[in-house]
Each structure stands twice: as structure tokens, then as C-alpha cells.
């Protein structure tokens, strides 16, 4: 015990000695800290966007994605736009022309069945469809023309309606762009993309126009996806009365070949490679054409919005029935044609009126 106290006393005396004190330099003064040094790094400016939804959002699981975030992230396909929603993942199977398959918070949303999606008040989910109820094909969007994305997650929003049991997202097309976009992209496996989006002043309003052409063959051994995607956009907007009105024309056409799913046993038996196909005749065709218009502004002592739209869309897929096997060979049942035609006409209005209670 006496030896232990002697060691503690010696340690304390060493800490109090001047030699120990000089071993730890004193912090620099404010003047010394402000003086630039020779090895100072270049100045870095970090720009952020702060948006307050206090008084507007009714839950913590909703938010807004702005143009800065969209422009900063490279996108391979239009369906990746939904991946801006926290916790949402977009995948793809059976060809680049089909609607993506979505997952939110670990739940399988199929091709959009449980996630409502809108573009300038137009619903994207198909109420009846040959491939999947709530079919959400975003291939008709040009990402460079999106102004913002408003998302909601959860079952807390009765005003969203059908297909929103897991959440919803609203895409708002831009009226004007700070600068035009003209790009040509080339990549592996025959990926080519050209896009042009620009806005100009015309007739007292703003005209936004854009177009996109994309091709892609894919990494497959025995087929080329041969994607031929074409998208067009025309939007005119301006001030009308105490609000702003717009008219939008959109067109989309695409056809492709599909690698489709393959059985693992075919790969293990060296019948095909991981990038091979059992049936090389699978593919599809899709199109979507729409005209929409709307007005939003102050009216009747409150806020009023009115929209009308007409949509014509089609999908033709020629997949095969499920693959089954015999002892020595792979057998594919006869092919079947899947078609989906849809025409949607609708007009709606919504408003919010301020009321004073008490006096």
C-alpha cells in the first residue's frame, strides 16, 4: 500500500513539472488563427436548400425534393426519380421499356400498386391494366424538365385517394428553366441518349419545350434490347387573373426486346449463361399521349385549383407463360400476348377557404 501511494505522488509531481507543461502547446490566439498559412486549402462553398413545412405538413414523413437535388444526381432511367423519396428503391426486370418495380421501406409495391403517383395533377397509376393493377410507368418523363417532387409516406392522407396505402409522389413540371439543357450521352452496351429542354418567352407567357431520344442494347448474349424510346413535351403557362394557368402536351413511344427471367437450373447445366435467354422473342411496345390544363390562384376568398386532362396509353407485351422442365430438356409453353389500352378523361377542382372564428 505504501509503495502504491509513492507511485501516485511521483506521477502527480511529474504532471506539475514545467517540462510536462511545455509538452502540450497552448491553443493559438484568435489573431494567430485568423492569419492564413502557406498550406491552407482552397475555399470550399457548400450550398444547401432549406424548406420549412411547418404549418403545412401533417406528418414528419412528407417532404419536397427541389431542382438542385434533381440536377445534382445522375439518373440512368426515368424511374430513378422516385428514388429521391427516402426509403424507396426502383428496380427493373423484363426489359427497359416496362414500368419499374418499386420497394418502399422494405415492402414490395409491385409496379406501383400501393404508391400513388401524379404529374401535374394527372394520375400515372392505371386503374385497370393487363399486367398489374396500379401500373406506374414513368418512362414518359424527362428528368431535366422536373421542377420538384412532393412525396408523402404512410397512410395518413385521405386526399390522395387510390393506390396510396404506402405513400404518394407528385411531380411538378417546370414552367421555366434558369438555363436550357442540350446533352448527348454515350455509354456501354449501345446506350445512347440525346435530350433538349428549353424555355422561352412567348405571347406574354412562358413556353417550355423538350425532347428525348434513347437507345440501349443491354449486356445480353443472345438478344439486343434494341430500345427505341422517344419523348416529347410542350408546356405553355402564364398569368391569368389572380393565378397562373398552363396547358401541357406530352407524347411517349417505346419498343424493346426483353431478356426476361431465366431458371437457375439452365445456368447450372450450362444451357445458357447468366446473360442468356430461354426465349428470344419476348418484348413489348408502349405509348402514352396526354393533354392537360389547369389554373391555380386566389378566388372566392381562398385558394382555388382546377385541372382537366385527357390521357391515352397502350402497352403490348409478348411474354411467355411460366417455364417448366422435363428430365432432360427445357420446355416453354405457348406464348401469349398481353395488351392494355386505356383512355382517361377527367376534370376536378379543389379549394381552401380561410375562415375567422371568434371576433
What descriptive keywords fit this protein?
359 residues; mainly beta; Ferric Hydroxamate Uptake Protein, Chain A, domain 1; five-stranded mixed β-sheet; 10% helix; globular; disordered N terminus; disordered C terminus
Descriptive notes:
It is a single chain. With 359 residues, this protein is mainly beta. The chain has one domain: TonB-dependent receptor, plug domain (Ferric Hydroxamate Uptake Protein, Chain A, domain 1, Beta Complex), CATH 2.170.130.10. Helices cover 10% and strands 41% of the residues. The chain contains five helices and 18 strands. It has helices at 2-15, 18-22, 30-34, 67-72, 264-268; strands at 62-65, 88-91, 101-104, 107-108, 115-119, 122-123, 146-153, 167-173, 181-186, 192-202, 205-216, 227-240, 243-257, 283-299, 302-317, 324-325, 330-331, 338-353. Strands 9-10-11-12-13-14-15-18 form an eight-stranded antiparallel β-sheet, with no helix packed on it. A hairpin with a 2-residue loop joins β14 (283-299) and β15. The longest helix is centred in the N-terminal third of the chain and has 14 residues, at 2-15. Residues 1-25, 323-336 and 355-359 have low confidence and may be disordered.
